[in-house]
Amino acid sequence: MDDENRGMMKWTILGIVTVCVLVVGSMVGCPHYRVWNQEMIGRAELSRAEQNRQIRVVTAEAQLQVEELNAQMEVVRAKGAAEAMKAVQDSLTSEYLLYRFILTFGQHGNQVIYIPTDGVLPILEAGRLGR
Predict the structure, then answer these.
(1) More exposed terminus of the chain, fewer Cβ within 10 Å: N or C?
(2) Beta-carbon contacts of residue 114 (< 8 Å; ≥ 6 apart)
(3) Can you tell me the distance from the alpha carbon of 29 to that of 36, in angstroms, rounded to the nearest whole number?
């Protein structure tokens, strides 16, 4: 063989060996790559799930704080209303209430006033229905 054919054969053998190495490497490497890829996907999903859980926990804690503050606000509001009612109750007398009733009755003139009785019929209305 001459040098040109030897060089050509050398490159051909080198090409065949290279192709064989690539084929064998692919056959061995692909399954390992798939396993590694699935592991990375699993880690990403686990990380995402952990992050979502942390978000839910923080949101629930914030909601709990809001509800506790709302409850405190309601207690304060109820105490204020109770104190106001107590102050009004302590300052009211039957004479003052009668005076306010007379003033109100005089301001509204000719209107029907409903006074409930034991029979659940207002006295003034019962007389008017008979006419």
Answers:
(1) C
(2) 122, 124, 125
(3) 10
Longest dimension (CA), the chain: 141
Q: Which of 50-54, 82-86, 94-98, 127-131 has the lowest mean pLDDT?
A: 127-131
Burial of residue 122 (number of CB atoms within 10 Å: 0-12, 13-18, 19+): middle
> Is the model's pTM score more than 0.70?
no
Q: What angle do CA 67, 69, 72 make, to 5 degrees?
A: 110
Compute the distance between CA of residue 84 and CA of residue 103 in angstroms, rounded to an integer: 23
pLDDT value, residue 26: 81
Where do the structural domains in the chain lie, given as residue ranges? 95-131
**Residues 55-106: tens digit of each pLDDT:** 999 999 999 999 999 999 999 999 999 998 888 887 787 777 777 777 777 6
* Sign of torsion over alpha carbons 29, 32, 34, 40: negative
CA distances from 89 to 23, 38, 75, 84, 131 (A): 97, 75, 21, 8, 41
